[in-house]
Amino acid sequence: xxxxxxxxxxxxxxxxxxxxxxxxxxxxxxxxxxxxxxxxxxxxxxxxxxxxxxxxxxxxxxxxxxxxxxxxxxxxxxxxxxxxxxxxxxxxxxxxxxxxxxxxxxxxxxxxxxxxxxxxxxxxxxxxxxxxxxxxxxxxxxxxxxxxxxxxxxxxxxxxxxxxxxxxxxxxxxxxxxxxxxxxxxxxxxxxxxxxxxxxxxxxxxxxxxxxxxxxxxxxxxxxxxxxxxxxxxxxxxx
Length: 239
Fold this sequence. Notes:
By secondary structure, the protein is an alpha/beta fold. Helices cover 38% and strands 25% of the residues. Strands 6-7-8-3-9-10 form a 6-stranded mixed beta sheet. Mean pLDDT is 85; it is low at 1-23.
């Protein structure tokens, strides 16, 4: 009986699907250090993320947040330390890391970086086409419907609002069905209403698709709404 009660409590909790997956590690970084010249940016950082977990990284400008995110995304390499993805070491450069990023990782940035000469649909499809995924356009349209973009798919980025551009960027990040989404200040250029809408979409995505999310943010609302918040100060985790 006690087991049944405990199970019911678990299943009724908002993050029950995440808790059920918490035994399975998605990302495990150990002893990450990074310097630029004589400037030490990251100092022996450890970081873990479970499948479907939503973690925010906060800290002052220049504290190393974006550098850490780039290292977790295989865009930069640490001077020392290791990163494991589902218990396997990250590839180290060349075609292997490119294929790894395309298959398993999605990126969303403060500036959407949409290709101006391509339509919203083409922008969303681009990573899938690069990865030669057969159902890219079908899934892109499914994501567009989920994000309220169906009627905007044939428009160029210059004809979209800031909120629509960021939603296109988010759909693009998800079109390859990644297991990990890395977002660097995704709400930085949005007003409070659009920022909340974007957060709700990300939260919905990680729950429905079991995508782990790491977001760098200055937003107190975002930081207080995720599963876990870590503060980075002088290259180390603050208290």
